[in-house]
Amino acid sequence: MTARVGYRRIYEEATPQDGKRVLVDRLWPRGVSKERADLDEWLRDVAPSTDLRRWYHHDPQRYDEFRCRYLAELEDPDHEAPLRRLRDMAAHDKVTLLTATKDVDHSEAAVLAQWLDGS
């Protein structure tokens, strides 16, 4: 049985309810030290490609298309190992996916959380 997968901004304080904290951004977030991030893992290889990230530019009107394109990218064999790692973590612990994005409900973290809860 898969544990619940959540997501939130990395700029928020870590809590015990986070479980495993996994950064899913390709770039390290500005102004966050590695100590303050309190990460269990940084899986930058599950992040959207640079081209997709630049195209999306966190425009909520493009979210549905971004989601479709990102899910298609996740089918690429390059994502197999990090996605397996995420699934394994979620099978044993609560996992919180972290992103620097201001609008977390329209982010790769939201897409990944939904994907993990459904897989």
UniProtKB/TrEMBL annotation:
Stored Pfam families: DUF488-N3i
Per the record, the domain of life is Bacteria
What this protein is called in its record is: DUF488 domain-containing protein
Organism, per UniProt?
Streptomyces salinarius
